[in-house]
Backbone:
């Protein structure tokens, strides 16, 4: 889910900020014009915040897995094979 907030700043015109909720931890982050604090993961059709992305370099760990599996099931996306460490691949 994303949110859009417009601000009318004096002499700056309209600025648009686009916000998303992380599909893994639920944290709200900015992902739009000039500021990208997350990553879109095409395989999962999911946007993850930088904290989740950088905190799981080897694959999606046990804290993120329940929400990820729920997302996959809800969106009819096949669960990929686990990597050599037994984790769901990050990409």
Residues:
């Amino acid at each position: 889910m994303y949110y859009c907030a417009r601000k009318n700043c004096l002499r700056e015109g309209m600025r648009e900020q686009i916000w998303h909720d992380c599909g893994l931890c639920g944290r709200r982050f900015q992902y739009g014009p000039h500021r990208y604090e997350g990553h879109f993961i095409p395989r999962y059709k999911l946007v993850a915040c930088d904290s989740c992305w950088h905190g799981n370099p080897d694959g999606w760990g046990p804290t993120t897995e329940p929400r990820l599996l729920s997302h996959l099931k809800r969106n009819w996306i096949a669960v990929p094979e686990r990597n050599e460490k037994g984790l769901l691949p990050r990409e």
Q: What stands out?
A: The longest strand covers residues 13-21. Residues 65-74 form the longest helix (10 residues).
